[in-house]
Amino acid sequence: MIFINRRNVIQAILSFLFMQVPSWLFGALVVQGGLIEYPVGFLQMVYRASFSFEFFIYPSVSAVFNIYFPKQKHWFIKLLYILSYPTFITTTEIFLEKYTKLIKYIHWAWYWSFTTITLTLLLSYWFYLWFFKAVKHVQKY
């Protein structure tokens, strides 16, 4: 956990574990629906989607996203922060799709990736806020 300091480890772990669920769900639906193909991958015989991305990389990004979200900043800074993560991930995905054999778009486009990444990051952040608000409420008693 290079980017997470010790006092935020519990929040990061929760964010990491939570994101594995929607990441796995969307990844499985997209692959099973024939929208994206991953010709080369870890555990390809067992799981046809991108195991590394959906169970490690994206949940790690989600943890960093949640921990460093600029809660006290102006709405425009929040918007830039929210859009920067999907922009970076989608740009990387486009590069991988175009120049490698790791991802193959069949009936998919970059804007679907951008949209699903944005929505799942926001879902993860809302869960993060809800969970730790509930924990603080319980700790009062």
Describe this protein's structure.
The protein has 141 residues and is mainly α. It is built from four helices and two strands, in the order H-E-H-H-E-H. It has helices spanning 9-32, 51-67, 75-99, 110-139, and strands spanning 36-37, 104-105. The protein has a two-stranded antiparallel sheet with strand order 1-2. Helix 1 (9-32) packs antiparallel against helix 2 and helix 3 (75-99) crosses helix 4. It is globular, with a radius of gyration of 16 Å. The two termini are 32 Å apart. 23% of the residues are buried. The model has no long low-confidence stretch (mean pLDDT 90).
Secondary structure: helix percent: 55-70%
Largest sheet, spatial ordering of strands: 1-2
What would you call the structural class? mainly alpha
Question: Based on CA inertia axes, which overall geometry fits?
Answer: globular
Number of alpha- plus pi-helical segments: 4
Radius of gyration: 16 Å
What summary fits the major beta sheet?
A: 2 strands, antiparallel
Average of per-residue pLDDT values: 90
What is the number of E strands? 2
Strand content: under 5%
Low-confidence stretches: none
Cα distance spanning the termini: 32 Å
* Secondary-structure element pattern, one letter each: HEHHEH
Structural features:
mainly alpha; 4 helices; 68% helix; 141 residues
Task: Draw up the topology in text.
Layout: H1 9-32, E1 36-37, H2 51-67, H3 75-99, E2 104-105, H4 110-139
Antiparallel strand pairs: 1-2
Helix pairs in contact: 1-2, 1-4, 3-4
